[in-house]
Amino acid sequence: MGAAGTQAMTSSGDKSYEEVRKAWRDAHVHPLWENPLAHSERNGGPRPHLWSWRKIRPLLDDAMKVTTPAAVERRVLTLVDPHAGDATAGTTTNLTTALQMLLAGETARPHRHSMNAIRFVVEGSGAHTIVDGKSCLMQEGDLILTPAWTWHEHVHSGSEPIVWMDALDVPLHRYLGIDAFEPGPTHDVPEYAHEDAFAVANVVPDVPGTELKFSPVFRYPWRQAATAVRAAPRARDGARRVRYVNPLTGGSAMALMDCHLAQLDRGSDTIPFRTTSNAVCCVVEGAGATRVGDQMLRWEAKDIFSLPHGNWISHRAETDKATMFVVSDRDALKRLDLLKEEYGNEGG
What we know:
By secondary structure, the protein is α+β, with helices and mostly antiparallel strands. Helix content is 17%, strand content 32%. The protein has one domain (50-341): Jelly Rolls (Sandwich), CATH 2.60.120.
């Protein structure tokens, strides 16, 4: 209705527009035409942010000195979107990422929750995440799944600190009001086939599992993923990309979140890409730059940055090779029939 409607309300009847608005507020209703986002065209999306490993790494040392998992359940520093203006905000829409740490000899007790979570090892080795009774070794570059409502705990038997990136769909669950948490001890643990049963590419065992909403494989080793991405053909945007999948279905490894590995060669920008999904990138190796809308992010190994929805995105390697691990909410939007993806031109 806009300004004309406001003027009409102001000049009609025996009440002023402010009196009418107060009555609406008291009744907990709000005029749609006063919402600046209503019926407006959006150009671009939320702003991205980069968390520099050089800046963040010393802060992890401080966290390892001031507390323990025994005291705080999990020793975690959450990466909060600075543009959200809220310390409880996620890293980007629908995704919360964080850095979690264990010192040698430490454990993080078992619990489970309704939110899906992944662990991508950024630094160190020698720890294990135990997921529904299955022990998953954690080495640098490995991806570990802890799907919704699976029991999980962390045990570090190595000699040096280990750091991994957590990514969870916490904002989506909290927005829907369906977040739930249960502390250990573990109980009612299901049985799964041993992961060796899925070790041969293109061949899977005849076992129940297609009814699961997540992969029966909980650990995706870096060595295998790195080999796969090096051999992958170039995707439409010019990068080589492989997707972590459920071997029984070929779909995403875990419901609501997608994970993939992307590799760039020096020499050219990827074709600009825009999507309604949101993502967070962790740089595994190399250095380069990513344009997100009108903002340029320069990154190097172990940096983490967000790719909010609605922005044109392109990447460029500034070393001979650059590799990024990417987690997104793409699967959630696809299930809701809200996923839209489009490519631009070579020139932007």
